[in-house]
Amino acid sequence: MNHFLLLPLILTGLLSVTFFLPGQGHLKESAISTELPKRLNGWKGTARQAGLKEKNTLSKDTLFRKMDYWRLGDPRDHYSLVPNNQRVHLSVVFSGHDVNNSIHRPERCLPAQGHFNMTSRDIFLPLPELDVKVPIKRLSSKQKISLGQTLEGEKEASYELDSVTYYVFVGHAAMTQNHIDRTAIDIKDRLLGGYDQRWAFISMSLPFGDQPFPNIGTITEEEADRILSEMMTKLIEESVNLGRIKHGFLPL
Questions:
Q1: Contact 118, 141 (CB under 8 A)
Q2: Is the full-model pTM beyond 0.90?
Q3: What is the mean pLDDT of residues 77-103?
């Protein structure tokens, strides 16, 4: 058999194994806290609920934690008044026992949040105190922002913004930006360690560009990357038990 055809077959077989691995009953918690910080790198946050589309897509024991962050000192007195292109959206989805129906490629769930035209690449966030860097997936997309139903009762109005999303998976003792890598780690731990683990899918996004309203300011793509890099790094430093992570860091 042509060796170029063999690799896809091996990967397909590896991923298929997960459907035949029974849950072991013992669930090891993710290395990231289930309590998200109310302040993050000079931004304040407000918790928000997961949408029905997200909840209905994933298994019932999936745990959701979500926050919207906006800059301290913003004259608007509530996050709902802050424009979308000046709000950082943080979502952490914790898997249950059935990881196949809890954590998946983010391209499956982001469309439920209005994202489309998605392209991705790897980036690396330095953690100087540990002398390591963390691989993160950077995903660019368009995002449809709903304005709700019109006063005339017609279908809801909306507009589109460009968006940048950073994401990473955090397990009991591993971090990875790669879904296949995460699956392989999970299979190894279930077969050799005899336990399930609660994986956390962390995604942080920031729309950028002009909105269809005057005098509300804007954020460039470069600013969006700088803000997300700083906030994702801060979240990892403050909320992840870094001493437990044995897989996923690279040397600086």
A1: yes
A2: no
A3: 75
